[in-house]
Amino acid sequence: MQSLLETPGLVSLLWRSTNRRAKTAGGGIFRMFKLKTGFTSGCKMAALAGRHNKSLLSGNSTTITLFGYRRGRMSLAIQENPTSAPIFLLELPMLTGTLHKEMASGLVKIALESETKTHKKRLVEECMWAVYCNGRKSGYSVRKKQASDEERHVMQLLRGVSMGAGVLPCASEKDVADGELTYMRARFERVVGSKDSEALYMINPDGTGVPELSIFLVRMK
């Protein structure tokens, strides 16, 4: 089987991610995410970072939210805009705390690989995905066709937030045992390599610096 890093389309997208800007990252959303313990609710975060910036809402950009309980798994949601339903939603095979540590260490690259042989579906409609984080395989995830009550709760709380990071109120008291419900939301530039590959590069609030988070979707041929 052709390995993930041998896929020509992905190699091109990875090269773009590494070399697209010469300046180093200036903090941005990741710095905000590291300070998330200072926030107590999505409403407070909305007041701080919910103002829409027209430069971040271009036609080739999309909204991505990472959220999860500290002692649970992290979920990934891709939306056309902060108020729309997710067009791609899955629970990543990694603990929230593990991804927090990756974010604290610097740049993060998440690659999602589909081994489906048919090409009749759109890339985001594929169901089974192998997940890699910074080159290390984390496991497998299945795309969700419908959001759960918990996930809809998160999307509803964040309807007024275009970018930011913080802690959200839990949906119920029983969820408190899993720790705080954390989130990070940002706009991403969408770059399509082919019908079988595309990349999403996080747009820093000031528009400068290397993307702190890049997400790659690849369908193996």
From TrEMBL:
InterPro entries linked to this entry: MIZ1-like_pln (IPR006460)
Cross-referenced Pfam families: DUF617
GO biological process: hydrotropism
Protein name: Protein MIZU-KUSSEI 1
Organism name: Ensete ventricosum
